[in-house]
Amino acid sequence: MDFKDQIKQLSDRVVKLKENILTEEATKTAFIMPMIQTLGYDVFDPTEVVPEFTCDLGIKKGEKIDYAIHKDGQPIILIECKHWKEDLNSHNGQLFRYFHVSNARFGILTNGIVYRFYTDLVEKNKMDEKPFFEFNLEKYRESQVEKLREFHKSYFDVDTILNTASELKYTNEIRNAIVQEVNNPSDEFVKYFARPVYPGRFNDVTLEQFRAIVKQAFAQYANDYMNERLKSAIGSDAVVENRAEAKAESPVQSPRAEEVQTDEPENKITTTDEELQGFYIVRAILYPEIDDITRVVQRDTQSYFGILLDDNNRKPICRLHFNSSNKYIETFDADKKGTKHLLESLNDIYKYRDEIISAYKMY
């Protein structure tokens, strides 16, 4: 089984079992040990994966960390574990102390779902306060799986990881700063964009007005940018392809996505600009999650606009119901049972990002 398939399997395991995991020890057994095993290390070999590894802290002797992964008799990764429900933000102090007295170059703080990777980029032999990489089993991108693969026993190389850790660390911090400013713009951020278009003085009322405008402008830009990229990739023949598909193959039925043969007269199916715009938004949502976005296709019918994976009517991602005054998006659960959600605008499709991604990941 490929590494990314193993990670997907472990992700499914976490979602299925987590509510039954009541203790930290159960978290280790059900989630963390399988992850260590997935990374290629033998959890049953005490010379490779050492549980309760002793880290003497000055006069405090016998302090233990949950796991230490060894290579050539030396620790290379320290792992501190918490219960899956615990917030990791308040727990890096213990790993920080252990890292300081160990020869390991990497530390992992995890609750079995989120894995935070630390090293000593700022000051040698002193663990950084912030992780350079974070992997969330419930929400990850394909590119993050490739980064995680570097910690696999077969590929592990300290110099290789350190060479990219710095770039990852600062790229992620800058990205997080951008996200923070876009979601909750600071006064200086608002003024930076408002000054070229507003010559007046900024008071509290003006700042609040422009804060909302800046947020709206960034949301609109992000939406337009992704849609334009996807339109360019699809080409000008999208509607022609859609009609051919609708004529040749049957639609997905609701509430369960079963294969049913129906004839859809071509001249009765009209694909609207709004339906295509909704299709582009769904593609934009899935773009970071899928290697080949062209696998996500659209198929229009008289009753709804279907969006499928691999042009397979047994793999529905969602449906758009835009043929009445009220517009709905229909999402599917693990049993392919559909649920309709009212849309006030096309941008509301982004509210159902998690449901759309979950549907894709089912297949």
Describe the structure using short key phrases.
single chain; 363 residues; alpha+beta; tt1808, chain A; 3 domains; six-stranded mixed β-sheet; five-stranded antiparallel β-sheet; 10 helices; 40% helix; 18% strand; globular
Layout of strands and helices, then pairs:
Layout: H1 3-17, H2 24-38, E1 49-54, E2 64-71, E3 74-81, H3 92-100, E4 106-110, E5 114-118, E6 133-136, H4 142-149, H5 158-183, H6 187-194, H7 204-234, H8 238-248, H9 273-286, E7 296-300, E8 305-309, E9 316-321, E10 327-332, E11 338-343, H10 353-362
Parallel strand pairs: 3-4
Antiparallel strand pairs: 1-2, 2-3, 4-5, 5-6, 7-8, 8-9, 9-10, 10-11
Helix pairs in contact: 1-2, 6-7, 7-9
The profile of the biggest β sheet is:
6 strands, mixed
Unreliable stretches: 236-241, 247-255, 258-266
CATH C-level category of the largest domain: Alpha Beta
Oligomer: single chain
| Number of H- or I-type helical stretches | 10
The H-and-E topology, N to C, reads as HHEEEHEEEHHHHHHEEEEEH
Any idea what the CATH architecture of the largest domain is? Alpha-Beta Complex
Task: Determine Rg (CA atoms, Å).
Answer: 25 Å
| Distance separating the two termini | 16 Å
Assign an overall shape.
Answer: globular
Mean pLDDT: 84
Structural class, by secondary structure, is: alpha+beta
Number of strands: 11
* Count of discrete structural domains: 3
Strand order of the main beta sheet, please? 1-2-3-4-5-6
Fold-level CATH name of the largest domain: tt1808, chain A
| Percent of residues in beta strands | 15-25%
Concise summary:
With 363 residues, the protein is an alpha+beta fold.
